[in-house]
Design goal:
The protein is an alpha/beta fold. It is 31% helix and 19% strand. Helix 4 links the parallel strand 3 and strand 4. It is globular. 36% of the residues are buried.
Length: 145
């Protein structure tokens, strides 16, 4: 047991967070995200039974966001086919980021699904959740302490 560590962070995920360096990225994928295929050249950590928002909040308790970029949090945007789909999880993401970063929601940027997949393939780690909200995928860029 360790004090101050959110209990939903597994030892495997804690190790990955500690190994990441400045500028490295971590993907939090929802239940529909192709986590295993995106992580072919990186690390895959399964976090079954967890919501993406709860995991983001726990991770940002420990992980500083990158101050060298304007938007260290990238959120997957909807495809045109889902233009009318409500995505309240995005507001949850922004609120969590605002809780942990002085830039607030301004630290977040929406990116297309295609750009998200390209960046996910280059990430240091892909975390698979069983989040059921649609388009509940984000990328976090690690900063310095």
């Amino acid at each position: 047991m360790l004090k101050g560590i959110p209990s939903i962070l597994s030892p495997e995920l804690l190790k990955v967070l500690a190994e990441m360096g400045h500028g490295d990225t971590l993907v939090i994928g929802d239940a529909n995200f192709a986590a295993a295929s995106m992580a072919k050249d990186s690390i895959l950590v399964r976090c079954d039974g967890l919501r993406a928002t709860d995991l983001m909040d726990a991770i940002l308790t420990l992980l500083p966001l990158d101050d060298f970029v304007d938007d260290p949090v990238l959120i997957m945007d909807k495809d045109a086919v889902h233009a009318d789909l409500e995505c309240p999880v995005w507001d949850e993401f922004r609120n969590i980021v605002a809780k942990h970063d002085a830039r607030g929601a301004n630290a977040c940027r929406m990116i297309t699904r295609g750009e998200f997949y390209t960046r996910a393939k280059a990430a240091y780690c892909v975390v698979a959740t069983t989040e059921t909200a649609f388009y509940a995928c984000c990328i976090l860029q690690k900063g310095c302490l």
